[in-house]
Design brief:
globular; two-stranded antiparallel ribbon; alpha/beta; single chain; Peroxisomal Thiolase, Chain A, domain 1
Length: 414
């Protein structure tokens, strides 16, 4: 018999704020965390806006030596994990450490550290390359750092599957507990991807918005008829997953239950999803089947919703394929309208937001819905949050290389 898995702790950093409470309040208020890029000269880029993390004081979570040595994506991961562990109240010690695991997701890892070191290499100043570069450039370092901090000696994995990394990390953590490999998992995603070379690459690919540099708060507009590309952002989201009986035994607060997980690949294109939505549709079906529920039982979809023309259209078509007539009854929102696309952290942050939707009965809006798109014609909860009971939610992530991930999350019922 499969073991039941619940979420007992959450932690996050987003462009809307540090901590789940601040980020959730901003999201529900319809605020945007998108602003002009401040970290490098953007004059030669078509896109000059992003979702930078603001007001982050790493000293609140780690010492100065750690801060000097480690890339921001690792700092974000540790900060979010610290918040999640504290929120959960879980005690990890030598007696249970072998039963607590770590699975973290990231799309690019320590890109900023590698970019900075490459400047020394290009100038022939090899003696100035930071010795910790190899750790910062190795994406699994975030998982290792978190494991060391909390003494988690159980299953340990890195998921690097582009934009689906955070979602698939949670899904694999769910499997570890469900199948008895661990009793608790610290899992999620982290990203610090606002760097000159990454932004330049995405800019040249044509993936980024370019219309609204003067109106950054309106730049990310998933499903809107005037969308023209995604907005890159950064941050981290971490969840504590636990086996149900152990969580109940220690009197843990339960945010919700993970019911199912789906993962597949379009095998279609390097950057573009299948226009007909077949790949994402099959992924959602896998998650529903794993959860043992029917499409009509889903109340809300936390959409991938990137604000790119083809991706939003593909996801809309996929939802219609899976849900049929029920698609028109679903509330659907894209958090990326407010926080941008956090790459490997996106799915983890969005799963937390989906759980908060279940807990509070507040469905956050998809902001910047100004111009209808005749083909994106579902209920995307435009511009204002909505009060509604949500018992079961689906959280979607679809990434470069055609990788897809979907989670089914529900209100906990004993």
């Amino acid at each position: 018999m499969k073991r039941r898995v619940v979420v007992t702790g959450i932690g996050m950093l987003t462009p809307l704020g540090i901590g789940a409470d601040k980020s959730w309040a901003g999201l529900c208020a319809g605020k945007s965390g998108i602003s002009p890029i401040t970290r490098f000269d953007t004059s030669k880029l078509k896109c000059q806006v992003a979702g930078e993390i603001k007001d982050f004081n790493p000293q609140d979570f780690m010492d100065s030596k750690f801060i000097r040595r480690f890339d921001p994506f690792i700092q974000y991961a540790l900060a979010a994990a610290t918040m999640a562990v504290e929120d959960s109240g879980i005690k990890i010690n030598p007696a249970n450490g072998d039963r607590v695991g770590i699975i973290m997701g990231t799309a690019v890892g320590g890109w900023s550290s590698f970019e900075a070191a490459n400047n020394f290499v290009n100038r022939g100043e090899l003696d100035r390359v930071p010795p910790f570069l190899i750790l910062n450039a190795t994406p699994n370092s975030a998982a290792g750092v978190v494991a060391i901090r909390f003494g988690a000696r159980g299953p340990h994995h890195l998921v690097t599957e582009a934009c689906a990394s955070g979602t698939n990390a949670i899904g694999l953590g769910f499997r570890c507990i469900q199948q008895g490999e661990a009793d608790a998992m610290i899992t999620g995603g982290a990203e610090a991807s606002i760097t000159a070379s990454m932004m330049a690459s995405l800019d040249l690919l044509g993936a980024l918005t370019s219309k609204r540099n003067g109106e950054p708060a309106k730049a990310s507009r998933p499903f809107d008829g005037d969308r023209d590309g995604l907005v890159t952002s950064e941050g981290s989201g971490v969840l504590i997953l636990e086996e149900l009986e152990l969580a109940l035994k220690r009197g843990a607060r339960i945010y919700g239950e993970v019911l199912g997980f789906g993962n597949n690949c379009d095998a279609y294109h390097y950057t573009s999803p299948t226009p007909d939505g077949n790949g994402p549709a099959e992924c959602m079906k896998l998650a529903l089947r794993d959860a043992g529920i029917e499409p009509a039982q889903i109340d809300y979809i936390n959409a991938h919703g990137t604000s790119t023309i083809i991706s939003d259209l593909s996801e809309t078509r996929a939802i219609k394929k899976v849900f049929g007539g029920h698609a028109k009854k679903l509330a659907i929102s894209s958090n990326k309208s407010a926080v941008g696309h956090m790459w490997g952290a996106a799915g983890a942050v969005e799963a937390i937001f989906a759980l908060l939707t279940i807990n509070t009965g507040i469905i956050p809006p998809t902001i910047n819905q100004e111009f209808p798109d005749s083909e994106c014609d579902l209920d995307y909860v435009p511009n204002q949050a909505r009060q509604a009971g949500v018992g079961v939610a689906l959280s979607n992530s679809f990434g470069f290389g055609g990788v897809n991930g979907a989670l089914v999350l529900s209100k906990f019922i004993g």
